[in-house]
Each structure stands twice: as structure tokens, then as C-alpha cells.
Amino acid sequence: MSGVRVLVGTRKGAFILTSDEKREKWDVSGPHFAGWEIYHLKGSPANPDRIYASQSSGWFGQTMQRSDDGGKTWETVGNKFQYVGDPGTHMWYDGTQHPWEFARVWHLEPSLTDPDTVYAGVEDAALFKSTDGGQNWTELEGLRAAQGHRWQPGAGGMCLHTILLDPTNPDRMYIAISAAGAFRTDDGGTTWKPINKGLKSNYIPEEQAEVGHCVHNLAMHPSRPETVFMQKHWDVMRTDNCGDLWHEVSGNLPTDFGFPIGVHAHEPETIYVVPIKSDSEHFPPDGKLRVYRSRSGGNEWEALTNGLPQEDCYVNVLRDSMAVDKFDSCGIYFGTTGGQVYASNDSGDTWNAIVRDLPSVVSVEVQTLK
Amino acid sequence: MIRVVLPPNLKIMARVDRELTFSIDGPVTQRAVLDAVEAEYPMLRGTIRDQVTQQRRAFIRFFACEQDLSHESPDAPLPDPVVSGKEPYLIVGAIAGG
């Protein structure tokens, strides 16, 4: 039987929400790892029963979990994230240099083809790879050579939060770091180049600097890996040449600040954002929670409100908290810092809360099970 | 036998609901006890002390015999009541927040 599995990471544990293809009735499993921060969990495209989870705590540090039965049971795997060599220093908030220090794993990206291969984006920003199901992790240190000494933490820390794998080219990967920008490798992660041309950030000393931009999230449709969409600190951007040049597509959005960005499963030019009022007021404008959809790849946006709270709503939607399923009628999902997970089974036209009172949601991922 | 008490979160992670006991050859020090804990329960590696630096995590404390041993040398001998098993060695998650 086909169905969907929504993997929700929260400040106090993980939850797994399951439904059939109709996506109307939901079962809620959890909390898994109760009391721990679960920044991210994601399933392997090559084996949906294989799920990786990042589990962390201010007391006990970073641990990693793996499931081989779709999240019913979990096994602790390797958690030794050691930078290669002396990582040196990066820019601190006040412009001085600061030692590189591992804090946590923000994002996990399993290989498209091998269940045992998975990438981890960490704070302080670096990319690690495991080829043995998460038991051992090796840094792809060439990334830090892309002007790492000039990277600076955003408000949430200096995190590598987005990893996109090109399904047509196993050597190509995109990643994004707050607040360093976007980077691309064309040789499987050995060497990297900043891809931030066209970005303008008037809150940094050199507004078109090669690195230093606060990129919040990237998204890509698998059929068009040369086109990447970006939600930046301010501005929604797009590139059609693998990041060599970006242009702004914020258009008529009520505010172009926000965190997540998503692409429809079957329409490469249909994209979604959740506008947030500003960097000092992390809640929706006017207390109205609205997803904005563009069917033209940006610039022209429509508000999606049916089923979403339109008064007194002051939650945030974090960067890894939006995902889409692959059913013919595409499902869109997002979680809020208020603990709600909203789902639409009709490309965003109507919405329902699957759950309303989870701990603050940090991440949402979806597995389409056919 | 050396008795060790884990904080609740680590008991869950280690899948134990009881005091741990270890037999240790040689000097009974904090390092020897933690080595024994991590050898038998590898899922706890990195949760009590950093895997690379071996430093105690900032919000973890070590107590025994009503003494705070957190700042003692990891190679100093533990008190006799811990060595004899009369008193447990306590690994505690610091009380923080409010």
C-alpha cells in the first residue's frame, strides 16, 4: 500500500507521522529520543526504511541514530566529527578570528543511490561524509579552503544547513552556510567554489562580497539541477546556471525575509516560501500565516491561506521545516515553532494541521512510500 | 566492583535502568572508570567527555562520597569507598535553566 511518512525533528524529540495516499487521517508516533534536540532526520532515497537522525543536547553533545525499519527501532551510530588537520580560525561576530569548534549536526543528506552513504552538514560549518551507514565520518576539508577564514556565524551559529545532490551528476553538490553563502563542488567534494555572484546583502561591509552572505535555504527540482532557488536572509533568488549568477525573484512578496524554500514535485517552476516579517521580528506579517506560491519560478506570487491561521499567529517556520511529497497531487508540509505541522494534499490550495501541539519544530522531511 | 550511576538521559541511550558495575584492573581513577563505561556502552562515547580532547563536557559533573570530583585530575585515585563498591560514582547532568 502506498503512503507517506513525515519525519519531524523538534526541540524535544522526533515524531513520525504516517498516512495513506489520501493524506487525510494521520498516525503520530513519538516522541523518539524524548528530551533531546533533533535538528534533522531524513530517509535514504535508495532504501526508505533506512533513516538517519541527528540527536543533540547541550549537556551530552552530539549523537547520531540510524533506523533500518522505517523509524520503529533505532541504533546509535558514530558521532566522532573531527576536522581534518588544524582547522584554524574563522571570523567571529565582532570581526576577530575565532577557533573552529564542532557544535552539532544540522542537516543529513543520504546518498541518492547508496543507503550507507550519507553527508552531514555541521556547525562550525563543515561537510562530513560517511560511507558505512554513519559509523565513521570523514570531513571533506576542501570546502573550508573556500575562504573559510572569512566565514562568520549567523544568529543561529555558523552552520552548514543545506545539502543538494545533483541527480544527473554524482560529482556535483551544492551546499549553503549561514553566514558564508552558497558553494558548489564539481568533483565529488574535493574542491569547492563560492557561488554568490548576484547576491546583494546590505548588512555586510561589502554588499556583493564573494563570501559572507546569510543564505537561509536552497531548493532544486531534480529534473533541472542547473536551476536552484534560494531564500536568503532578505531576498528570494534564483540561478539557472548552477549558481554562477543569481537574480532576485522576490517580486510581490509582502516581505522577502524568510527561512525555507521548496519546489513542487512535478512542476519545476512552482515554488513555495513562507514570508516572515523581518530579521528582528521572526513571525508572519500581520499575524497571518501564509505560504506564498509562485507558478512562474518567482516574481509573481499568490498567498495560500485556506486552512492556515489568519489572525494572532506569531510562530516562525525554520529553514529545514518544509518538504514536499511525490504523489500525483503534490503534498506540501511545514512545521512551526509553535509545534504545528501543516499539510496540504493539493499543492498548497488547502491546508490542515496534522498535529498542533508538538515541541517547537526544527525540521520536516517527507518520504513517499509507493 | 565499581558502581556507576548514569543520568536518566544516558540510561535511556544505553538501554539500562540500573546502576552499572565494573571490575577494573589497575588503579581506579576517573579515566579508568569512564574508559570502562565507554567500552561496555559504546553508544555513550562523546556524551560524557569529548571524543577528541577527552575533556569533560561542560554540563556534566562527577560526584562520589559527597565530593565534587569534576575538577580533579582524571588520573587521580578515586576514594576508597568507590574502589570497594561501598559508594557509587555519580555522573550527573548539571542542573541548568530555571
Could you explain the architecture of this structure?
The complex is a heterodimer of chains A (370) and B (98). Chain A has 370 residues and is mainly β. In chain A, 0% of the residues lie in helices and 40% in strands. Chain A has one domain: Methylamine Dehydrogenase, Chain H (7 Propeller), CATH 2.130.10. Chain A has strands spanning 3-10, 13-20, 27-32, 37-43, 51-57, 61-67, 75-77, 89-91, 97-99, 104-110, 118-123, 126-130, 138-139, 159-165, 173-178, 181-185, 193-194, 215-220, 228-232, 236-239, 246-248, 261-263, 271-273, 291-294, 302-304, 322-324, 332-335, 341-344, 352-355, 361-369. In chain A, strands 3-2-1-30 form a four-stranded antiparallel beta sheet, with no helix packed on it. In chain A, strand 19 and strand 20 (236-239) form a beta hairpin. The model of chain A has no long low-confidence stretch (mean pLDDT 97). With 98 residues, chain B is α+β, with helices and mostly antiparallel strands. Chain B has a single domain (2-93), classed as Beta-grasp domain (Ubiquitin-like (UB roll)). In chain B, strands 2-1-5-3-4 form a five-stranded mixed beta sheet. The longest helix of chain B is centred in the middle third of the chain and has 11 residues, at 30-40. Chain B is globular. Chain B starts with a strand and ends in a 5-residue tail after the last strand. The model of chain B has no long low-confidence stretch (mean pLDDT 94). At the A-B interface, strand 6 of A face helix 1 of B.
